[in-house]
Amino acid sequence: DLCKGTLVDLFPERVGKVLGVYAVYPYSRQPSRKIKLLIEHIRQRYLSMSDYF
User: Gene3D superfamilies given for it (predicted)?
Assistant: First the structure.
């Protein structure tokens, strides 16, 4: 909404702290295929939204 002008960036020179995203799941030697696919999906979505983070 910055582009629309409805929000105003009060501190344009300040950069937000870089935060990580962590997947926490029960330990197993080989995570299930569903877990791997979910993590990959979240990773891809996060990377596609890198302008926001």
Answer: 3.40.190.290
Please tell me the distance from the alpha carbon of residue 22 to that of residue 40, in angstroms, as a whole number.
12
In a domain, 29, yes or no: yes
Residue-wise pLDDT tens digits, 2-35: 677 788 878 878 776 677 788 898 888 999 999 9
CA–CA gap between residue 28 and residue 36 (Å, rounded) = 12
| CA atoms of 47 and 44, how far apart (whole Å) | 5
Domain tally, the chain: 1
Half-sphere exposure of 35 (CA within 13 A, CB side): 11
